[in-house]
Every structure is written in structure tokens, then in C-alpha cells.
């Protein structure tokens, strides 16, 4: 696995227009885990990719009317089979966290990498997703000096009350155990 100009060679590149520059001297120092499914509760539609590319057909599902026009992204998506997709270069600022705060610092998009797991808060994530996420985290922790094993969090941790993902189904202990084995 290798990063070249912010793009990981192990990931399928699906560029999103939803990003901008990080503030000067803001190296990634936090990794935020999310989950998403489109339509909600359904996997494998390909609509997460379309959503992050502003190409979702809003007539395809009633829920899509609610999210119509939203411009969001994450750096990475890990699909149910573990397949890794990248939407935004890691040195750019993806739009995944929204209003957020981590240990006194606002606007976590400035200094974080966002990783979406295809899933739901209350449904177990797949073994393949844990393994892909572990490999991704291990590589990024090794690559970015300010990103450490203790600076991994969920969207719910930086936007409490507003966001619940990746939810109680996500096993943080398992991720940390896999990371200890991998690094
Ligand atoms: Zn989220």
C-alpha cells in the first residue's frame, strides 16, 4: 500500500468534486469513522458513490429527496466485501464531519481523514471491513506523524447528539486489537 499525491494505490479512485484545501499546515491528525447506506439499510446499490459524486438520482428513492443537493464526501469508503474506494486525496479537505469538535478543536474536516463504512449503526460490520479498515489505519498512522492509534474516533464522538455513526455495532476494541497485531 502506498500514497501517491494523496491517492492510495490500494484503493479504487472515484474522484468527488466535494473537497477543498486544508488550512495551511494542517496535516491529518485524526481519523473519523462513519457509516452510510443508500438507500438506508440497503447495501451494494452503488448509490454511495453516486451521492459523493453529486450524481444521485433523487427520484430513485423517497429518502433521496431529503438529501437532494447535499454536497458531501469522505476520503474513503469500505464496502461490505472490504473493497476500498477513495473519493478525495488525503492531503485535501473532504466534507464528512460537519459541525464538530475534537478535544477543543472545531471543524474536524480541517485536520481529519474521513472513512465511511458501508453499514448501519445497529448491524454488525463484516470481517472484511474490519480487515480493510485495519490495513488502511495502519498505513495512514505510519505515514502521518500526527495520526496515532489513540486519535481514531467515530462521527458520534465529534458531533454528539447530532450524529450516531458508526453506532453501537462498531467494535472499537476489535479495531484496536487488529491494529496492535498489524503494527
Ligand atoms: Zn458520519
Indicate the multimeric state: single chain
SSE series: EEEEEHHEEEEEEHEHH
Tell me the number of helical segments per DSSP (H or I, 4 or more residues long).
Answer: 5
Q: Name the beta content range.
A: 15-25%
Describe the global form. Answer: globular
Structural class: alpha/beta
Please compute the radius of gyration using only Cα atoms: 15 Å
Bound molecules: zinc ion
Uncertain stretches? none
Report what the structure shows:
The chain is α/β, with parallel strands linked by helices and 183 residues long. The chain is 23% helix and 21% strand. It has five helices and twelve strands. The protein has helices spanning 47-52, 62-66, 127-143, 155-158, 172-182, and strands at 3-4, 7-8, 12-13, 19-21, 30-36, 76-78, 84-86, 92-94, 101-102, 105-106, 112-118, 152-154. Strands 3-7-6-11-5-12 form a six-stranded mixed β-sheet. The chain has a two-stranded antiparallel ribbon with strand order 1-2. Strand 6 and strand 7 form a beta hairpin. Helix 3 crosses helix 5 (172-182). The protein is globular and about 45 Å long. The relative contact order is 0.22. The model has no long low-confidence stretch (mean pLDDT 97). It binds zinc ion. Residues 34, 155, 163, 165 line the site of zinc ion.
Amino acid at each position: 500500500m502506498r500514497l501517491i499525491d494523496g491517492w492510495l494505490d490500494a484503493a479504487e479512485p472515484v474522484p468527488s468534486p466535494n473537497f477543498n484545501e486544508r488550512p495551511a499546515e494542517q496535516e491529518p491528525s485524526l481519523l473519523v469513522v462513519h457509516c452510510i447506506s443508500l438507500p438506508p439499510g440497503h447495501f451494494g446499490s452503488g448509490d454511495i458513490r453516486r451521492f459523493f459524486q453529486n450524481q444521485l438520482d433523487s427520484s430513485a428513492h423517497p429518502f433521496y429527496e431529503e438529501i437532494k443537493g447535499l454536497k458531501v464526501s469522505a476520503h474513503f469508503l469500505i464496502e461490505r466485501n472490504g473493497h476500498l474506494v477513495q473519493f478525495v486525496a488525503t492531503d485535501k479537505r473532504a466534507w464528512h464531519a460537519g459541525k464538530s469538535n475534537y478535544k477543543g478543536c472545531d471543524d474536524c474536516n480541517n485536520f481529519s481523514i474521513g472513512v465511511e463504512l458501508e453499514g448501519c449503526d445497529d448491524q454488525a460490520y463484516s470481517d472484511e471491513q474490519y480487515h480493510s479498515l485495519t490495513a488502511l489505519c495502519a498505513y495512514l498512522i505510519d505515514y502521518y506523524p500526527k495520526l496515532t492509534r489513540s486519535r481514531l474516533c467515530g462521527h458520534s464522538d465529534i458531533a454528539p447528539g447530532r450524529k450516531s455513526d458508526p453506532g453501537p455495532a462498531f467494535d472499537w476494541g476489535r479495531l484496536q486489537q487488529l491494529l496492535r497485531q498489524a503494527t
